[in-house]
Amino acid sequence: MIITRDNRLHIEQLQTDESIFATQNGYIGVRGTFCEGYGTNGLRNGTFINSFYEEYPYRYEENLSGFAQKGQAMIHVIDGQGIEFYIDNHPLNMESCDVVSLHREFHLYGGYTTRTIHYKTPSQYEFILTEKRLTSLEQPELFVVEIDLQSLNYSGHVEMRSTVQQPQFSNTLSRDPRIGKTHNESFILRDIHISDDYGCIQVQTKHSKLEMAVSVTHNIPVQYTHNDKNITATAHASLTENEHFTCRKYVIYTSSNYHSNYVTANNILRQQILKNQSTDYFEQQRQSLTSFWKTCEIAIDGNERLQLIMNYNVYQLHTSGGLDSRFNIGAKGLTGDGYEGHHFWDTEIYLLPFFVLTNPQKAKTLLLNRYHNIEAARQEALNLGHTRGIKIPWRSITGRELSPYYPAGTAQYHINSDVAYAVIHYYYATDDMSFMLKYGFELLVETARTIYDIGHFHNGVFHIHEVTGPDEYTTCVDDNYYTNSMAQYHFQFIVDFYDKHASLLKSLITRMQLSDQEIKDFNQAAESMAIIYDETLQIIAQDQTFLSKEPWDLEHTPSSNFPLLLHYHPLQIYRKQVLKQADVLLSMFLLDFEDKTIMEHSYDYYSNITTHDSSLSKCVHSIVASALDKLSVAYDYMIDVSEVDMSNTQRNTKDGLHLANLGGSYMTIVYGLAGLRIKPDRIILCPRIPHDMNGYSFTIQYRQSIITISISDTIQLTSTNTVDIELYGNAITLQKGTILDYPLG
């Protein structure tokens, strides 16, 4: 499986493809720039380390109580991509030469990218430069780039300059809150030194005080030099026509937020590389992905492009994070600096459904990140006036709330129940009781306490006031359906789990000072939760006042004015009936809403007033459309979801891949068309095939079983262990090692 792109040379295309061809492994991410650079057109390389950030102060003209005071941003770190070539002192790049052709590939089975570019110099000499690169999955600190320069008609001297340099910034001013902020001169040089076979830079961030070491070595003789910021390795060669010059470059990244002694760790890895230069890291990468593709590849019969993009999305999800419970996955992964590298609820609602079914250990690791930051979340709850419980930050890197705009940030208390939902979902899929007793139940209770605290009983009904749901075009409302329904599910699970396993929870109950009365309070809140149903429209209302607002005139809004958030004052948006993204419908999907008539009416109503300005939206509409047997609509949405980054439909792929949308694309197949749902004692399947597709298949992990699900004219199921399945409402026991053939409903 290979993603290919040809002759995309405009700046916008280059920036988009930097994200598309970014390689990441959960620890480091390297954007797909050209090793030789672009010239002086202002584009810059990008290399990131997960959760390696700088701090900066927020500035408010009216700084009120409880506002976040400091921001954090994942920053561009020391960059080791650069390999420049000079032909008779003339640089070989797209600014100084003509580009005859450009061909790029992302080898999904191999986990690496290649780029072949044909240059013609002003002197009419022609060269083909091939670059092959990876971020190692076996050794996460390692970035490898291999280059091959072929002379087509030149004979003479060639100079290679391989660099390791501090990031260069071009200041850009933008009101777009999705774009990462520029932080110039973030580093203090701690040390820079060279030897005969390597160079190394050590730096520290000015404010967060994080430290890192970056060293470089090559498989050919080079001469290392340095100034006060950068290292350059120089090599010289004489080429004749059709002769090749090749070099492999190894760049090692170690940092203080991962390694207790980052300098020693860097030295050890570099020495290993120098001793084992015969290692084929590209073959090693391919082999390390063999088991992944056996259990994670998605097959789609009838649309090769969709199949290819789905598997690209799956690969980028797999490599985005989940290596270490100290760190989460940012909204752009490690493919760009959009949203400043912050993680959101995206992890639990859009990424965890993939990891739970394909790599439960990564799912657990990501949930443990929330647990390990529980004290920071407790402090945020205190900051917001809560005497008990925790408040999961809306956007964060280290566990601290970083949202400076509370109406569309901190007010999204539903993130507490989003984390709870992910814990429950993981537990149902894995039956990991040890996790629940050590971490999960505590997370559930602490997040529930804060949700309970923002609600109150009025005339026997439990209301939750002044919250924002997933739809960020409607803020600080009362009884948002998504928030309330997720809280109801959250509370009810706690009650049921407590009743069933109280004897196993004794020590935890004592430590948390959890009383029977508090459990009763949760139960009463769940049973009395305010859910607003509009009798006239026969739909679930998004909140107490949403349906009384004037609808936004979407039909006459210029296409250039989307997304609305960049063109209209927030109050102008908040006063209207208009959605940025799925809200009621998201709850209906996650909680498996049973009344199909109400669901269909709600779907039809909200679909007409949803802008899909968020990339998190269309996947939900696809899944709900599948549940309602609107298969052509579901399929169209699925295509739209798959093309968000490949076709840059949101016009901001340059800032990094939309990780939540990648997870959403997976869900449109597995949770949408296949109708998969995970219940306490079984999995449910309700497979469908749209007319534009002949079939599809995928594999999931469920409670120590690997289950392959193939949908075509019939349904074929196999499992490595015996499991209980509900298929179209019929209870079926899938026997270990047998093939179950079932008619398509």
Short description:
With 745 residues, the protein is an alpha+beta fold.
The largest beta-sheet arranges its strands as: 1-9-10-11-12-19-16-15-14
Q: Care to count the β-strands? A: 34
Helix-strand category: alpha+beta
Q: Helical percent range?
A: 25-40%
- Structural shape: globular
- In the CATH scheme, what's the topology name of the domain at 2-288? Beta-galactosidase, Chain A, domain 5
pLDDT below 50 for ≥5 consecutive residues: which ranges?
none
Kindly provide the radius of gyration, computed on alpha-carbon positions and rounded to a whole number of angstroms.
Answer: 27 Å
Number of helices: 19
In this structure, how is the largest beta sheet organized? Answer: 9 strands, antiparallel
CATH hierarchy: architecture of the domain at 2-288: Distorted Sandwich
The overall average pLDDT, rounded, is: 96
Measured by DSSP, the beta-strand proportion falls in 15-25%
CATH class label of the domain at 2-288: Mainly Beta
How far the N terminus sits from the C terminus, by CA atoms, comes to 31 Å
- CATH superfamily caption of the domain at 2-288: Glycoside hydrolase, family 65, N-terminal domain
